Amino acid sequence: MSQDTVDEVKDKAAPDSGTAKAGDFEAMAGQKVQLDIDDAPFLVEQEEEPPVPAVTESSPPEPVEQKKRTISKKLLAVALVLLLAIIGAAVWFFVFRTPPPPPPQPEVIVVPTPKASTGPKEFITTLAPFWVPLTDDEGKSRFLVATFVLSTFDDPVNEEIQSNLVTLRDAIYYYLSNKDYHFLIDAANAETIRTDLLGTINNYIVQGELRNLYFDSYLMQ
To answer: Which of the ends of the chain has fewer CB neighbours closer than 10 A, N or C?
Structure first.
């Protein structure tokens, strides 16, 4: 290498003291970096902005009075529909409905009523019970309780019996109280007692004669 070449290399390697100082060089480097950033803003990391909530348009609330009117109209419409339905059902039921056939009637069986007997009317009189005091063989007090029924087909005889009931009762009681205890309790004497009582009663009957007398009860107590 020649001496000229060596001198040229030294001149290039030596620092240029006349153009800029060391501090000026650092300032220029910082300014260049700032200029580069300003020229390329996309190199700076941008901060994410918070998402803006979407604003939805909403209709303003209806006034209270308008809501009441709407509800009233709906209720009126429902009531009108129900009224029309009731009227239609009533018209169908009373005008267009076919009534069901009547149930079959049961067969009526006519039973002939037996004719009343055209025979003579029987008049029956039941006398109240007679209590006749008696004394048995042991000396104990007993009572004969007897009830008699008088029967006749003669109206005049019945009228006399009804008008003389008290007298006839006294006569029957007198007859029974004067009979013996054994005579009254003997069943074989029943027909005799019946005949005697008929005769006693007929003693007080003028128009006709009583023919039937029955023992309704005859007990010894």
So the answer is: N
Amino acid identity at 111:
V
Whole-number Cα distances in Å, 135 to 50, 124, 175, 193 = 138, 33, 16, 19
Task: Give every CB contact of residue 51 below 8 A, 6+ residues apart in sequence.
Answer: none
Using CA atoms, how far apart are residues 156 and 21, in angstroms rounded to an integer? Answer: 183
pLDDT bracket for residue 72 (50, 70, 90)? confident
Q: Exposed, middle or buried, 157 (CB in 10 Å: 0-12/13-18/19+)?
A: buried
How many CB atoms are located within 10 Å of the residue 204 CB? 15
Alpha-carbon gap, residue 209 to 157, rounded angstroms:
7
Q: Give the Cα separation of 6 and 4 in Å (integer).
A: 5
Q: Decide: 142 and 135 in contact? Cβ < 8 Å.
A: yes
Binned at pLDDT 50, 70 and 90, residue 6 comes out as very low
Q: How far apart are CA 185 and CA 214, in angstroms?
A: 17
H-helix or E-strand spanning residue 216? strand 212-220
DSSP class of 92: I
How far is it, in rounded angstroms, from Cα 194 to Cα 20?
185
139-168 confidence digits (pLDDT tens): 889 999 999 999 999 999 999 999 999 999
Burial group, residue 35, by CB count within 10 angstroms (0-12, 13-18, 19+)? exposed
In the block, residue with structure tokens 């039973």: 111
Model-wide pTM > 0.90 = no
